[in-house]
Amino acid sequence: MNTFLFTTFFAAISFRIASMIISIINERRLLSLGAREFDQRNSRRLIFLHLLFYIVCAFDGWYTGHFLETNIGLAGLCLYCFSIIALYYVIYTLGHIWTVKLIIAPEYLHHLNTGRFFRFFRHPNYYLSVIPELIAIAMIFHAYWSFLAVFPLYMATLITRIRREENVMKQFFPNY
Fold first, then answer.
1. Average pLDDT of each block of 10 consecutive residues along the chain (176 residues)?
2. 103-117 tens-digit pLDDT
3. Going by C-beta distance under 8 Å and a sequence separation of 6 or more, which residues neighbour residue 68?
4. Alpha carbon of residue 165 to chain centroid
5. By CB neighbour count within 10 A (0-12 exposed, 13-18 middle, 19+ buried), where does 65 fall?
6. Which long-range contacts (CB under 8 A, 24 or more apart) does 171-174 make?
7. Residue 5: what pLDDT?
8. Which of 16, 35, 46, 173 sees the fewest Cβ atoms within 10 Å?
9. Cα–Cα distance between 129 and 120 in angstroms, integer?
């Protein structure tokens, strides 16, 4: 296996872990300042399914011996890197209010982002980061059966999250 590809993959995974640390720090700070968390059960499901997806795909790739093999694996790695760049752009843009959970900060801390990026992509964290990330992981490990088994469950949970997030945002931001 190409050492460069292997190193790139684990560097990208490290960036994803770092994003989780950022989320935890932001979440704790927001909650200490009076923010409210919504739909905790759905958030826990998404986190569980995200981890499950990684584990199942990695096991699938390990078991079958396919990890970054062929151009599909390389394309998956490129897509994964794109998803991480998109994730960090969203984190940078949202700053202290970005978390993986549905948290609304007090009005003095939480302002609706109406920038061009968020107007064009209503939920860029999901559509440009999370979904491409999961597709990329399946491609990297050539884990097509794992993808077919877990991705629909993830998408059903994500669609529920998006709908609930839309409702909460409309409740707190009349211009949403």
1. 68 87 96 95 95 90 78 91 94 94 90 84 92 95 93 97 94 85
2. 999 888 888 888 888
3. 1, 2, 5, 6, 9, 74, 76, 77, 140
4. 15
5. exposed
6. 172/104, 172/110, 173/112
7. 61
8. 173
9. 15
Alpha carbon separation from 145 to 21, 119, 161 (Å, rounded): 30, 35, 25
- Give the phi and the psi of residue 37 in degrees, each rounded to 5: -100, 140
Fill in the amino acid letter for 159. I
Residue type, 59: F
Q: What pLDDT score was predicted for residue 2?
A: 61
pLDDT on residue 122: 85
Residue reference for tokens 């490290």? 14
Token pair listed for 5:
């590809």
Question: Are residues 28 and 101 in contact, defined by beta-carbon separation less than 8 angstroms?
Answer: no
Count of alpha carbons within 13 angstroms of residue 107, beta-carbon side: 4
Residue 36 per-residue DSSP state: E
Assess contact for 42 and 160: CB atoms under 8 A. yes
Could you tell me how many residues make up the chain? 176
Rounded to the nearest 10°, the torsion over CA 127, 163, 95, 29 is: -140
